Amino acid sequence: MGQNAVARGLPAEETSADLVSPSTTIIAKASLLPGAASLDVAALPLEREQEVVSLSKGDYVEQDTRTDAEPIRKPKAELRPPPTPPVWKLESTHKAKRAEKQKIIAQKRTRLAEENCLAKAIYFEARTETELGQLAVAKVILNRVKDPLYPKSICGVVYQGSDRRNSCQFSFACDGMPDDIRNQTAWTNSKRVASKALAGDETMRIMGAATHYHADYVKPRWSYQMRRLIKIGRHIFYADT
Fold first, then answer.
1. CB 159 within 8 A of CB 117
2. Between helices 87-126 and 131-146, what is the axis angle to 10°?
3. Axis-axis angle for helices 87-126, 184-198 (nearest 10)
């Protein structure tokens, strides 16, 4: 068919121009709109206003949802066992600990020996006295330990001069009789009083700096050269003038 031919079965007024733009003809003929209405896409009502949000380049970066109060958690470092110290260091540490342990044991033994010497002095010198009288005897011994004229230990003070018969500081230490403990009740009490004295019982403050005492039924010559402090039970206590 030639370009100027008329399509078979079509009205004469419908030319080829109508076939060139079939969409306009379809809209005009098949639309349910009134014939006089025109299709204006811009005039159609919108269901809702379209919002276009412009995101930056970080659109595809995972957002940080932490709050300001939350710390930044760093990945845990790989846990590694501490390096093993050299053998010489292990041996020196062991020797130091052993020496320290031996020192503590020696101090404990010394303390027990000192307490035992003090308890013996209380037992043999004042076991028939009241607790105050026993503490007073213990105070004299402890004061002598602090005095530079006497030995620096409790046992040294208690047994000073014990190698000479009847010439020691405390008569029981050089009377020639064995120091046997026969009254267990009195011995237990003497150890308790000794522990109390070593703890610094406030009752002993009344003794002040007493360094000597004697029984009230004797009058030794040295007592005239000393200052009398107090009498407790059968004992009279003195201090240096």
1. yes
2. 130
3. 120
> Tokens 């043999």 belong to which residue?
124
Starting at the edge strand found earlier in the chain, the sheet holding 235-240 runs 212-215, 235-240, 226-232
Residue 54 lies in a domain: no
pLDDT, one tens digit per residue, over 122-145 is: 999 999 999 999 999 999 999 999
Task: Identify the domain containing residue 123 by its residue range.
Answer: 91-206
Structure-block tokens of residue 202 = 């406030």
| Residues 200 and 207 sit within 8 Å (Cβ to Cβ) | no
Task: Report how far residue 47's alpha carbon sits from residue 36's, in angstroms, rounded to the nearest whole number.
Answer: 25
CB 31: neighbour CB atoms within 10 A? 11
Q: How many domains does the chain have?
A: 1
The reply to whether 127 falls in a domain is: yes
**CATH number (domain holding residue 167):** 1.10.10.2520
Burial class of residue 137 (count of CB atoms within 10 Å of its CB; 0-12, 13-18, 19+)? buried
Q: Please state the pTM of the whole predicted model.
A: 0.60
